[in-house]
Structure formats: C-alpha cells, structure tokens
Amino acid sequence: MKSAVETLNPTRVRLSIEVPFEELKDSLDAAYKKINQQVTVKGFRKGKIPNRVIDQRFGRGAVLEEAVNDALPKFYTEAVNEGELNVLGQPEVDITELKDGELLAFTAEVDVRPEIEIPDYSGIEVTVDALEVTDEDVEKAVEQLRERFASTNPVERAAAEGDVVTIDLEAKVDGEVLEDGVAAGVSYTIGSGELLDGIDEAVTGLEAGGEATFTSELKGGSAEGKEAEVTVKVTAVAARELPELDDDFAQMASEFDTLAELREDSRKRLENTKQYDQATQAQERVLDELLKLAEVPIPEKLLADEVQTRKHNLEHHQLGQMGLDLEKYLEIQGKTLEEFENETSEQAIKGIKTQFILDELVNKEKLNVNQEELTEHLMRRAASSGMSPDQFAQAVVEGGQVPMLVGEVARGKALAVVVEAAKVVDTNGEIVELEDDEETEEATETVEAAEGTEAAEEKDGKNEA
C-alpha cells in the first residue's frame, strides 16, 4: 500500500491511497463467504457455491463492492498511522480508481488536530475577589439557620409580610374557570415570591375568611403565559416565630454548646466557601488569559458538530426536563435565535480551544494521571450524576469512557500548572497563594465547565474509521 498526505489547511488533510489488488485477497475471500451465506443457487448447498458461479449469477461488481467496503477502514487506518495523523471525526472517502485484478485507489479527506505552539504563560496575571468574611456575613448565615427552626402559631389578625397563610385559589381565563386552575389548602409565606405575581399585595391585610381578586400571568399549567383573573381566599393566618439567639438555640441547631462556637463555625464555613470560589475564579481567569495568548485553528466540521450537540442537549435534555421548548426558553432569556446561536458557537469554540491547548500542554509537560487521581475524579462525577460510584464506574467502563475521564483529569492538571505559574492578586492588591490540596480536582471542574456538554476528544475519530 502507498499513501501520501496533502495538507488542505491547518485543520484538514487529504490522504491519497493506492492498494495493490493482491492486498484485497482477504477482503475478497470474506466477501465471497458473506454472499455465499446470503444467497441460494439451485444445485448447490448453502455456503458451498463456487466463486465463479457467484460471479456469473450476481456479478463480479457486487463482490468487489463488498470487498472494498470491508477493506477501506483497514487501509485508511494504516495510512493515518503511517502519516502519524491525529484525526478528528469520520473521513469523506472517494474511490478514484478500481481495476479488477490490478489496483484500488481512493482519497480520504478528514479533519486533524492542528499543531499548536504553547505560548509563554509565565507572565499571566489575574485579579480575583478578596477573601473577606464580615460579621454581617456571619450573622446572615446564622439568621438563615434560625429561619429553618422557625415555628408557626395561628393568630387572629390581618395577614402581614412574613406570615404563613393558608389559601384557596381559583384562576379564570376569559371568564372560564380552568380545570387545573383550582387549588385548596395551599400554604404560602407572604413575601417569599413562590407563587403568582401580585399575590402578596392581594393577601396582605386579609384576615381568615377574607377574599381578594387580582390579575396575574400564569407560570404553568394549561394556560401558561396567559393573563388570568385569580380569586384568593384566606382560610387561616399564622405568625412565624423565630427561636431566641442564645446557647440553647446553638445546642438545638448544631453540635455546639454555645452561640459563640456556632458563629465561629459559620465563619470558618464561609471562609472555606469563599476560598473555593476564589480558587475557581483564579482558574477561570487564568484559562481565559491562556486562550487569548494561543493561536488555535478550529476545524469547521468539528465546530459544527459541537454546536449541534450543545443545541440538542439543551433542547432534548435540559429544557425537556423543565417542560420548555427552545422558543419559550429564548423568550424567558430575552434572546433572539441569532443571539443564541452566536453565543452557542462562541461557547463551543472556547471548549474546543481549551481542550486542544491543554492536551498539548499535557504532552509537553509529560503529565500523567495516577489511579488515586482517577478514582477521586470518578467519585465526584458519580456524585454529580446521582449514581453510586460502582454504578458510574460500570457505566464508564461499558461505554468505553475511561480515556475520556483520564483526559479530563490530565487537562485539569495542565491548567493547575498554568495557574501555579501565573500571578494571582486580590482586589486589595494582595498576592493570593492557592492551596495545593484538591487544586487539580478544582481545575478539572473549571476545564469541564469551559469545555461544555461535549468535549472534542469524544469525537476523535482515529479509532472509529
């Protein structure tokens, strides 16, 4: 077999391949055998029809077509390996010559990973939010905990903000009561914003037995999005009572004996959360700066596939679970279809660039992923998927996705290398020293977010053809 590679552009090549006919022998034998099992000829047992009879009855052309279809993937793969190409996706194959007994010649155009020069990233500098936890932050966290332990007691007075009212609802559209527009015994906290627009104003000031009517746009049901006339009747009013902020509350709501200890624990938790957010912010901003420094050609077909995949996942998975279609989603977001498509394309480009650059950095820095790192990543992915680690691991192995997980961790390690070399300062001008613990896993999460729903590696067609 002879092969030659022609570079069409930085992300696409054409392979020209010539195969001497004798190298098709195995595929020809397989073609005759396959046809033998599929056809019947009077006077011959099934599977025992001579090749010359198959040629006479069904035509040599049918045999050649079957043999060529069988042989093309093998010769294409050999040419890819010979050319040391890193191909993406499936090739477009064109048979240019087929001479029975002499020669098979064909071309294959395919996208390839572009050659990328890793820029000098040592000069990257980013600014992140300062790690500050105020007394006000602590009191807000304690107050939220206090709210969780609030009790309600019936009162004989008009309802006010913060009260819990029990209400009956009836919604009419065009004067007709909706079948799904009636509800009784609904519990609602005034001011929570959890029901219809306008309901807070309607029930505030009403006592048990009071009734009011207001108009509101329905947020769900058979008449979603339509203006409805809603009648609300208050059947009970209850006041929420918060527990006293003292040591007894600390003992009831936590493992601590004193309110001071509870506040100190809240402060530490907030510091840990803000430290995590600060690290994530640093990684995201360093990655953005790295992407600005590198020139990365984007394969057109890969980009088109990625955009289509993102749109499909949004429409058929995320929006489907929320009971929305794309049109309604765009209306809620206040975007035109053109704006949405441009935004999706930009996100896809960023995801592809991220993977290409970090994969190149993995190779350059000779970064490896050990079993412990892979297991940690698998555990986190399992938790986010709602599956047990064993179930997730089994699904990953059966789906042949282990290399994908390894790639995710490796790219996370590559980003951590860049972050470590970068200068990170906070809004106070102080140098930020990021913790090494869990840094790779956090960086991996940042990379996943940048890559989006479908990583380019999943489309790597080197072993698919």
UniProtKB/TrEMBL annotation:
Region Disordered, residue ranges: 433-465
Domain PPIase FKBP-type stretches: 162-215
Subcellular localization(s) per the UniProt record: Cytoplasm
Keyword Repressor on entry: no
Compositionally biased residues, Basic and acidic residues: 456-465
Catalytic activity, reaction form: [protein]-peptidylproline (omega=180) = [protein]-peptidylproline (omega=0)
Start-end of Acidic residues biased regions: 433-445
GO molecular function: peptidyl-prolyl cis-trans isomerase activity
Chief localization: cytoplasm
Enzyme Commission code: 5.2.1.8
Domain of life: Bacteria
Gene3D superfamilies, per database record: 3.10.50.40, Trigger factor ribosome-binding domain, Trigger factor, C-terminal domain
Keywords: Cell cycle, Cell division, Chaperone, Cytoplasm, Isomerase, Rotamase
Keyword Iron-sulfur: no
Protein purpose: Involved in protein export. Acts as a chaperone by maintaining the newly synthesized protein in an open conformation. Functions as a peptidyl-prolyl cis-trans isomerase.
PANTHER family: TRIGGER FACTOR CHAPERONE AND PEPTIDYL-PROLYL CIS/TRANS ISOMERASE, TRIGGER FACTOR-LIKE PROTEIN TIG, CHLOROPLASTIC
Domain observations: Consists of 3 domains; the N-terminus binds the ribosome, the middle domain has PPIase activity, while the C-terminus has intrinsic chaperone activity on its own.
Family (UniProt): Belongs to the FKBP-type PPIase family. Tig subfamily.
NCBIfam families assigned to the protein according to its UniProt record, in alphabetical order: tig
HAMAP family: Trigger_factor_Tig (MF_00303)
Protein name: Trigger factor
Gene: tig
